[in-house]
Amino acid sequence: MTYEGKMTLVEFMEARNKADKLMSVKGWNRMVVNIAELRSMPMTLELIDLASDLSSDLPPSTRIALVVRPDQIKDAKLVERVAQIERVFLTCFLDPDEAALWVKQSPGRQIMERDRRGKS
Hints:
Layout: E1 2-5, H1 9-26, E2 30-38, H2 44-57, E3 63-67, H3 73-85, E4 89-93, H4 96-104, H5 107-116
Parallel strand pairs: 1-2, 2-3, 3-4
């Protein structure tokens, strides 16, 4: 999924809910979410709420690669940490190709790669 332009928190939540439903209907458990072209992001506290809500909406086998710009990395890393605390396997990337490769890996290999990268 790719998000572009400006999005309010309500629009962001609606898009996330649609993605959750699509994943459920299709039986998917992996997704690349590209927000690098998003011009506005929710505030930090709103991002924390979004990340913590993921665990209630998604099965534990879900893997999400979040693609961001360098200026979004600070907030993206916060989302990543909160999601992982909530037991959602979400990892941030600057490169969309690297993100796509990561979601295609088996879960065991993903854990090894993340540990090798210093849990970044």
